[in-house]
Amino acid sequence: MATAGLWTGPVRFHRDTRRTFYADIFATEGGDINLIYLQCQVPIAWHRHERQDDGIFVVSGTLKVQTIDPDGTRSLHYLSAAAGRRPLRIPRRWWHGYEALADHTVVLQFNGPGKWDGSDEERHPIDETMPWTTS
What pLDDT, in 10s, does the model give residues 45-93? Predict the structure, then answer.
Protein backbone atom coordinates (compact mmCIF):
# COMPACT_ATOMS: atom_id res chain seq x y z
CA MET A 1 0.00 0.00 0.00
CA ALA A 2 1.44 3.37 -1.05
CA THR A 3 1.67 6.23 1.41
CA ALA A 4 0.95 9.76 0.21
CA GLY A 5 4.16 11.62 -0.62
CA LEU A 6 6.34 8.53 -0.92
CA TRP A 7 7.72 7.60 -4.32
CA THR A 8 9.50 4.65 -5.83
CA GLY A 9 10.41 4.28 -9.45
CA PRO A 10 12.57 2.49 -11.98
CA VAL A 11 16.35 2.73 -11.99
CA ARG A 12 18.37 2.17 -15.15
CA PHE A 13 20.96 -0.59 -14.65
CA HIS A 14 24.01 -1.58 -16.68
CA ARG A 15 26.87 -3.97 -15.92
CA ASP A 16 29.97 -4.66 -18.02
CA THR A 17 33.63 -5.57 -17.41
CA ARG A 18 34.40 -2.00 -16.24
CA ARG A 19 31.59 -1.22 -13.83
CA THR A 20 28.18 -1.78 -12.35
CA PHE A 21 26.08 1.29 -13.09
CA TYR A 22 22.82 2.38 -11.44
CA ALA A 23 21.53 5.39 -13.35
CA ASP A 24 18.92 8.06 -12.77
CA ILE A 25 18.32 6.99 -9.18
CA PHE A 26 16.20 10.04 -8.32
CA ALA A 27 13.77 11.48 -10.84
CA THR A 28 14.97 15.02 -11.61
CA GLU A 29 14.65 17.09 -14.75
CA GLY A 30 17.91 18.83 -13.84
CA GLY A 31 20.10 15.84 -14.64
CA ASP A 32 20.97 12.24 -13.85
CA ILE A 33 22.10 11.06 -10.43
CA ASN A 34 24.08 7.82 -10.76
CA LEU A 35 25.91 5.37 -8.51
CA ILE A 36 28.85 3.46 -10.01
CA TYR A 37 30.77 0.47 -8.60
CA LEU A 38 34.09 0.38 -10.46
CA GLN A 39 36.42 -2.49 -11.29
CA CYS A 40 39.88 -1.70 -9.95
CA GLN A 41 42.47 -0.53 -12.50
CA VAL A 42 40.09 -0.63 -15.47
CA PRO A 43 39.94 2.83 -17.13
CA ILE A 44 36.67 4.33 -18.28
CA ALA A 45 37.97 6.83 -20.79
CA TRP A 46 37.87 9.07 -23.06
CA HIS A 47 34.61 10.92 -23.52
CA ARG A 48 33.18 14.44 -23.43
CA HIS A 49 29.79 16.11 -23.46
CA GLU A 50 28.64 19.04 -25.53
CA ARG A 51 25.81 20.21 -23.26
CA GLN A 52 26.43 18.61 -19.85
CA ASP A 53 28.89 18.93 -17.00
CA ASP A 54 29.91 15.88 -14.95
CA GLY A 55 30.10 15.99 -11.18
CA ILE A 56 32.03 13.19 -9.47
CA PHE A 57 32.10 12.37 -5.76
CA VAL A 58 33.92 9.34 -4.32
CA VAL A 59 31.83 7.49 -1.73
CA SER A 60 34.46 4.82 -1.03
CA GLY A 61 37.87 3.93 -2.40
CA THR A 62 40.25 5.99 -4.54
CA LEU A 63 39.75 7.37 -8.03
CA LYS A 64 42.16 8.74 -10.63
CA VAL A 65 40.53 11.23 -13.01
CA GLN A 66 42.26 12.51 -16.14
CA THR A 67 41.02 15.54 -18.06
CA ILE A 68 41.98 17.37 -21.24
CA ASP A 69 40.60 20.89 -21.56
CA PRO A 70 39.51 22.39 -24.92
CA ASP A 71 43.03 23.89 -25.36
CA GLY A 72 44.66 20.44 -24.98
CA THR A 73 46.02 20.88 -21.43
CA ARG A 74 46.04 17.60 -19.48
CA SER A 75 45.29 17.39 -15.77
CA LEU A 76 45.44 14.53 -13.32
CA HIS A 77 43.25 14.41 -10.20
CA TYR A 78 43.13 11.92 -7.35
CA LEU A 79 39.93 11.67 -5.30
CA SER A 80 39.71 9.57 -2.19
CA ALA A 81 37.03 8.86 0.37
CA ALA A 82 39.79 8.86 2.99
CA ALA A 83 41.20 12.26 1.98
CA GLY A 84 38.50 14.83 2.53
CA ARG A 85 35.73 13.66 0.20
CA ARG A 86 35.75 16.59 -2.21
CA PRO A 87 33.62 16.63 -5.36
CA LEU A 88 35.09 17.33 -8.80
CA ARG A 89 33.14 19.13 -11.54
CA ILE A 90 34.25 18.49 -15.12
CA PRO A 91 33.03 21.20 -17.49
CA ARG A 92 31.29 20.34 -20.74
CA ARG A 93 33.56 19.91 -23.79
CA TRP A 94 36.47 18.59 -21.64
CA TRP A 95 37.74 15.10 -22.49
CA HIS A 96 37.80 12.99 -19.34
CA GLY A 97 38.00 9.51 -17.93
CA TYR A 98 38.53 7.80 -14.63
CA GLU A 99 39.97 4.66 -13.06
CA ALA A 100 39.52 3.06 -9.64
CA LEU A 101 42.84 2.64 -7.85
CA ALA A 102 41.40 0.63 -4.96
CA ASP A 103 38.95 -2.22 -4.62
CA HIS A 104 35.43 -1.25 -3.62
CA THR A 105 35.61 2.19 -5.23
CA VAL A 106 32.12 3.67 -5.47
CA VAL A 107 31.34 6.96 -7.21
CA LEU A 108 28.30 9.20 -7.03
CA GLN A 109 27.96 11.03 -10.33
CA PHE A 110 25.72 13.88 -11.43
CA ASN A 111 25.32 14.74 -15.11
CA GLY A 112 23.45 17.91 -15.97
CA PRO A 113 21.75 20.06 -16.79
CA GLY A 114 19.14 17.86 -18.35
CA LYS A 115 18.86 14.13 -18.85
CA TRP A 116 21.62 12.23 -20.65
CA ASP A 117 20.25 10.74 -23.86
CA GLY A 118 23.41 9.55 -25.63
CA SER A 119 23.39 12.29 -28.27
CA ASP A 120 25.47 14.51 -25.97
CA GLU A 121 28.46 12.17 -25.64
CA GLU A 122 31.48 11.87 -27.92
CA ARG A 123 33.98 9.04 -27.31
CA HIS A 124 37.62 8.55 -28.26
CA PRO A 125 39.65 5.34 -27.81
CA ILE A 126 42.73 5.11 -25.64
CA ASP A 127 45.46 5.19 -28.27
CA GLU A 128 48.68 7.00 -29.18
CA THR A 129 46.81 10.26 -29.88
CA MET A 130 45.09 10.18 -26.47
CA PRO A 131 46.97 7.76 -24.20
CA TRP A 132 45.86 6.84 -20.69
CA THR A 133 48.72 7.71 -18.34
CA THR A 134 49.60 5.27 -15.59
CA SER A 135 50.95 7.80 -13.06
Answer: 999 999 999 999 999 999 999 999 999 999 999 999 987 778 999 999 9
Tell me, what amino acid is at 21?
F
Q: What is the pTM of this model?
A: 0.86
Q: Which CATH superfamily is domain 29-114 in?
A: Jelly Rolls (2.60.120.10)
- Residue 132 to residue 3: CA distance in whole angstroms: 49
* Backbone dihedral angles phi then psi of residue 102, each to the nearest 5 degrees: -140, 150
CA separation for the pair 115, 32 (Å, rounded): 6
Contact between residue 24 and residue 41 where contact means Cβ atoms under 8 Å apart: no
